[in-house]
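re: ur msg from earlier - yeah i can do the magnesium ion complex, just paste it... oh wait u already did. ok heres what im feeding in:
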Amino acid sequence: MKKMSTFIFFLIAGIGLIALSAMTGNPGGRGQSQPSTQWGIHDMNRPQPPVVDPGPAGPPAPPPSDAVVLFDGKDLSQWTNEKGEPTKWRVEKGYMEVVAKTGSILTKKGFGDCQLHIEWSMPLAAEGESQERGNSGVFLMNTYEVQVLDCYENTTYADGMTASVYGQHPPLVNACRKPGEWQAFDIIFTRPLFDKDGKVTQPARMTVFHNGILVHDNVTLSGPTAHKARPPYKVHEDKLPLSLQDHGNPVRYRNIWIREL
Ligand code: MG
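and the outut:
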């Protein structure tokens, strides 16, 4: 009898946990992730994540031996512009810098499931407000954006701030360093899966660390990221380029490497 009641207890607890995961869109993740479905897109009332000081930047994280190095500070040979031509972004002193109006850049190679390391820094001086300060972005599969923005003493809508899964998930905390200091994202990305009819059988998921601090714990994406919209999934290839956004601000990147999973 005792065994039976223990079994029923765990059964009910299990069902409860599954229901909670479904509600938060965060299977197996921490409970504090804000469910994207409860808030309209770019809702200014959506709570701002607490500020956490990540401490000073360390030296660049060396790429592991099985990583594909996408940028080692020397050249942009692994990248093209949106037309497949050489990009006009600037390379100097071990970093690349967005050159406004030259367009976003894409890797020549495609990637699906991956672990990505990328370092970036915000322009000095800090100019512009909200989305106009240091805007760029890291697009997994050229489709799913982790927002790059200067949110050090700069407020914007929570689902569009630094390290947000743009328009869907605010980060758990605001771990921004000051403009001019190097920052890092470590992203674990699981691509969406589609069946032969184009139906989503498994949505995309992301785990993200900003400056070494967990900001997304295996969150589920509702579809491609977009401005003022949450469009549904569209079937795409198993592997697509990683892209970095030209949003008109001279954001810098260095030490970019990726491990295919
Ligand atoms: Mg952006």
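cool cool. The radius of gyration is 19 Å. ping me if u need the other ligands too
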